Amino acid sequence: MKEQQKKKVIAVSACLLGKKCRYNGGSKQNEDMLALKETHCVIPICPECLGGMKIPRPPSEILGGDGDAVLDGRARVLSKTGEDVTEHLISGAKKALQKLQREGIEEAYLKESSPSCGVNLIHDGSFTDKKLKGSGVFGALLRRNGIKIRGID
Description:
By secondary structure, the chain is α/β, with parallel strands linked by helices. The chain has 5 helices and 8 strands, in the order E-H-E-H-E-H-E-H-E-E-E-H-E. It has helices spanning about 30-35, 45-50, 65-70, 85-105, 135-145; strands at about 10-15, 40-45, 60-65, 75-80, 105-110, 120-125, 130-135, 150. Strands 2-1-5-8 form a 4-stranded parallel sheet, with helices on one face. A two-stranded antiparallel ribbon has the order 3-4. It has a two-stranded antiparallel ribbon with strand order 6-7. The mean pLDDT is about 95.
């Protein structure tokens, strides 16, 4: 009998898998991410929910830098209503990282442009849909901890 091959374990932003956890109560379901379930062991992850943020919630953007700047204390994450949600994003990112490390995950597919999960792009903090190069808080934390990240639109 053939020995069954072990599937690679990866993390995917929960919203990309159809979970309605985005700020507006919606998802960004991505068929390519759903198809990964056939070949990989997929762990859905939402650092914002792990950080205690409600669904729905006002949109949030990083002001004064990117996720690295937030982690270094040089930038903040504010909601469109002006609430400082920095600690929610940092706390959720740390909890999510711990979960992924326990699972032995070396790779994550994250929702691009998110203040948490952005990999290459984030919104610029003006709430005008302008984007700039940089990672979200969770994306930056994963990169700092040697987990390969890929941005998915």
